[in-house]
Amino acid sequence: MKLKYICINLIVLVSLLSLGKAAFANTSESLTPVSVQINWHHQFQFAGFYAAIAKGYYQDAGLDVTIKSWQPGINIREEVVSGRATFGTSYSSVVADFIKGHPIKAVMTSFQYSPMVLLSQEPITELSQLSGKNVSHYNNLQILALLNRAEPEVEEPTQTYPPTGNLDDFILGRVNLYGAYETNEPFQLNELGERYYLVKPGDFGINSAEDLVIVSQEFATESPDIVDQFRQATIAGWQYAVTHQAEIVDYILANYPVIKSRQALLFEARATTKYVRTGEIPIGSLDPARLMATAAESRDVGLITAKELQRFNPEDLIASRPDANALTQAEKLYLIQNPIIKIGNDINWAPFEFVDEHGEFKGIVADYFKLFEQRLGVTFQPVVDTKWSNVVSMMQSRELDMLTAVTPTPERKAYLNFTTSYLSFPMVLVGNQSTLFINDYSELTGKRVAVVRDYWSHEYLRNNHPEVELVLVDDVTEGLKAVINGQALVYSGNLAVINYTQQNLGITGLQVVGQSNQRFELAVAVHKDNPLLLSIMQKTLNNLTPEEKGQIYTNWISLEMLTRLDRRQIFYITLIVSALLFLMLVWVLIYRFQKKRLQKYIYQVNDLSYASAIDPKTYKILWVSKRYRELTGYSEKELKRISCTDAANPENMPKDTQSILTQVISGISWTGEVEGKTKHGFVYWVELTLSPQKSMFGDIHQILVTRVNITDKKRIEELSIKDELTKLHNRRYLTQIFPAEIRRIQRKNNHVALALFDLDHFKLINDNYGHEFGDDILRRIAGLATEYFNRGDDFLFRLGGEEFLIITNDTTLENFEAHLQDFCAGLFALKIENQGTEHGFLTLSIGAGVWPAAEVSNFTDVYAPLDKALYQAKHQGRNQVVMVKHD
């Protein structure tokens, strides 16, 4: 008996184990396997991948990710292109590989700028100090670019030695400069108590991204969803890793073969954070401007040619996100299962849709649906012999799948969903020649108004103007004839349809006598219980190009027709002209007056890129293009409420703005670069052209403003001269502007004043509070210095690390010293805690001096005495100013 129970239990246990194994297998099979080839030993450099695995982000994205260990000699690009690895982490030189034609795409970047540095036995502040030095490095782009920039400034060329990977080469002095990651080797040197200095390429204007995650072009094309899911999960991993450093360090140690200690990994984690998360730049983002700067550096070091750089479009390198308008598998299956889709259309509503004498579906809407058929591979079956009121009934009874072009109304929204509007025209009133102009529909109280039964105009008047007596007709022609025969005072309908019907049927004696503020916003309508079809139609509409829509529009409605109709309206409203010549003259004058209304139609056809028009008297914006609205983030109404100068960035407006506007008003165009701010505060740059527009009488009636977006160009310029962290000028910019600034001061016969300052015991800030806190402090110091030195000819530079330089003029030795003492006191007053120092708070030391500008020819003339004075300030107890004494 017992044996029987034992057997039964064993069978149950085996079954459960089998089920568990099958369940596990099914779970694994549901995940897509991908791999990542890293480009160095396992360490915190790749924490985003480890964290995404540890926290299940990849699994949530449907991915089973394997991280492949690095081996010497591995070519990351070839591993990815060959398919041996799905993704790979590569150095920034991979940008040159792409330009050379290798089939790769960039998915994201782990580091916004490179942690690659040179270790030096002595401080390097000028590129000329690299003269005759021997250098060991791995041919990283940043180091190559730095050495390339040094070539014109060194007396003796640098000598490059292949790296051995042995840090003793640097410690024992076998090489003067040693290529390293700031996140790695400095910890080892600190542990050994070795002195070293860092030479950072970023301090000399070299700011390329690093650790670009790449994928093969083939995989990116075939599996864009997987690439995007991997990107998002990895970014989430980095977001977790930088805020949970110790946890991820312990995970790396427990799961991967690591050759570093826990303390070394924690040091790396603190140092890595500032490279991964930089200011307001989103983690992982690929900046086209930075990619272009990286390409420029590749050209400078000879990796690519100038022609190859000219052809390079950084957007081509970036793996595109999945198209939001691409059909899903479910939507594709719906089309396969429904090859014929029944549509409800109007058979007599030209030029939008009608059925001709041959029984063919024609018109603007019909042309749209022909494009839809080409895109979707289905047949749309229209109704050809049923009036509109019956079509509406057929839709309600589900005999039809969709309505082709209808305006959303409360009644229709009860059972239909709508795409966005794809055609828009005003609703107008048409009367005979004796009918006076009707300013408002309230004037039609008790009057007879003809409308087509079940048209939107019918529903609108029925619901909003019940005091109007409606005359219901079956089509537009019947409605116009009702006005001619006196059955109705006016007909209410679509402007374009009325005009088309009049011209094609030769109906005369009618005129536009009023216009509603309501418009026919025509959309595709689908039953509420068919969301798939609605989504398909919306995506198909979204994918139509402006050229395709413009061609359909011009096939059926010309701008001439609209303006001619407006001319006739004006002619009858004014009742003052009868001769054709005088009519043309009045039309031109009134057209200018009416242009505000007509622009809604005109610019629908010809929407100028980033364009606007402004009033030359008030400088108010009269009209804006769609693209300019998208650029600024403002709506048209918001832009019209502000002046043209309000839309620019007031901090960088041209100083001679008034003279520029005076020039344009005099009839002379102006072109220049202007900085703007979007509604949400983001900065952009445009090349602006102001063109005066003259009327037929020669006066300037408006100014046309066109723009070319040069934001990427300006960002590349800024990357090369601005310090990434503090946004102060960098050492490269100092080298560029110093001679010109000295000559300017010499022409004014002034003295030049310089101050070199350094934060005291700043290393303790990083050690005690972390590098991220240290970075925040550096930004605060930069902001404080900007407050104290904010004149137009004051310059502030971050030379590297915690060392800064101030250049000013037109001051005396005494005044400069007093102002610097105030600056020191201002920092101390912030009470930034710095434990273990003599003051208990962060302080700074300053070496400064004032020289006659005529005695200064280059920066090296003043740097040595400034550095000596700074050293003296530190030696004397810090938190003080030491002025250079002149003989």
UniProtKB/TrEMBL annotation:
Q: What is its EC number?
A: 2.7.7.65
**EC class:** transferase
Gene Ontology terms: biological process: cell adhesion involved in single-species biofilm formation; negative regulation of bacterial-type flagellum-dependent cell motility
Output the InterPro entries linked to this UniProt entry: Diguanylate_Cyclase (IPR050469), GGDEF_dom (IPR000160), Nucleotide_cyclase (IPR029787), PAS (IPR000014), PAS-assoc_C (IPR000700), PAS-like_dom_sf (IPR035965), Rev_trsase/Diguanyl_cyclase (IPR043128), Solute-binding_3/MltF_N (IPR001638)
Q: Membrane-spanning residues where?
A: 570-591
- Write down what this protein is called: diguanylate cyclase
Question: In the UniProt record, which is one GO cellular component term?
Answer: plasma membrane
Q: Which organism is it from?
A: Nitrincola tibetensis
Residues in PAC domain copies: 670-722
Q: Does the keyword Translocase apply?
A: no
Print the keywords alphabetically: Membrane, Signal, Transmembrane, Transmembrane helix
Q: Where is the GGDEF domain?
A: 750-886
**Which catalytic reaction applies to this protein?**
2 GTP = 3',3'-c-di-GMP + 2 diphosphate
Q: Which residue positions does the secretion signal occupy?
A: 1-25
Q: Per its UniProt record, what PROSITE patterns does this chain match?
A: GGDEF (PS50887), PAC (PS50113)
Tell me the cofactors it needs. Mg(2+)
Task: Please give the Gene Ontology molecular function terms for this protein.
Answer: diguanylate cyclase activity
